Amino acid sequence: MLIFNIISLYLISMAVVTVFWSACIRVLNGSNYARTSLVLCAAMCFYILGYAMELNSATPSQIEFWNLVEYIGIPFVSALWLTIALMYTGHFTRCKKALVLAIYLIPIISLILRFTNAYHHLYFLTEGYEEEYGKLIFVKKTGPWMYVQSIHSMLMILAAMGLLIHDSVQKEDKQRGKILLITAASAFAVAGLLLSQIKPFNITIDYMALCLPITCVMVILAIAQFDLLETRSLARSRVFEYAGDAFLLINKQNRILDYNSSARQLFESINIRLNNGYISTLLSQVPDILEALKNKENSVVKLRMKTEDRYYEITTTNIDNRNATRGWIKTIRDITEIHQLNEDLKRQAMTDELSVLNNRRAFIRIGTDWVSEANKTGKTLHLSMLDIDYFKKVNDQFGHPIGDLVIREFSEMLKDHFGADSLIARLGGEEFAILQAGVNDEKTLRTLNAFLNMIRRHQFCYHGNQLQITVSAGVTRSQPNQTLESMIRNADKALYLSKNRGRDCVTVV
Question: pLDDT (tens digit, 9 = 90+) per residue, 400-414?
């Protein structure tokens, strides 16, 4: 009686381990032979748990029922093990239909014959019950088809062992531990088959049911230690969990199904705790991100993180199944540095390096918008063109360093005098432009003459050298439906008139 209790406890424990390992495989791996491994685990559970219940049944009807449950798994265990080996070694793609027929035809027939054995006795010649050690035991005499099934199972196990060992030997790393585990696992399975036929020790026990869990443990060790599961699928799960980018898995109802550690840390930094809830509820505090996650187009959002603004790009990947979208993977990537670099590049592309004013490109782009807006609203624009008189002589007499100093100081004085409401630019060399909106003719001239007077009195100093400069200016006022280019031409014409008049003056055209 004690021995049967020990066997039952052992079988139930191994069934629990098999179920646990099935869950681990499902979580960690999505390969084809990982899914086949799940089916193998299910078949083993039917076999092991069914036999444990058979040993603990008290009536013939109960024993018969649980023996039938066992046979839902028994014929398919070795066939599934060979299928996994074929998939792992890359042989399953060759003559796939023929392989499936050769592997599974006999197990399917065995299942049918076992459930209909009472009508033909091809699987068991006889069935009966005997009492051993105080337990009612199911005793059966092997029928002709059971021999076929046993031989088929042994061939499947040996073929699987041969394939896996051959594959391990062919690899460069020559994993001896993997070869030993596979060999030992297959050997235990073969031993179980042989012992079930020989029936040693005068105890009516299904030795295959006892040996199969040990085989299972060894296979688990091979999977865990020597990467029997597909590395690609395992790597994918690791990439999702440990990637630097934040990943959210969202279904069609906009509910978060899964997320990685980076996503959790990102949202915790803005005091949001993620869970498997609806994004409209979880992210109501951050409407910009909520809108971006609902939107299927790529977008960039700005988040305030403690003392700085951070920029995040949100991209969408569809999860499709049979041409139907089942959900989306949202990737949230910190692009702050890239955003800042792009902004710096834009500023550099639009800014004159020496004067730190707008350059010609920026002046044309922004000024064109100003003129277009003025044509729509009827607002008056004044364009002033300024040129430092005899600037070439400054460079020739004092050198380019003091020439650069004059440009920098002159530009600062322009910004201070005309203010932020004006569009100020260095068009090149010593030529500058000022576009003003909403200022009348009188104020424009007064402001410009005051600036020329200020420049006239200003001393530019550099390493003991002092010099003064003067400025010539030309001004034009916008006309209805005028373009920026025509305003520039008119202001240039006025500037040259100032130069012809002796410089250091303002001319209006």
Answer: 889 999 999 999 999
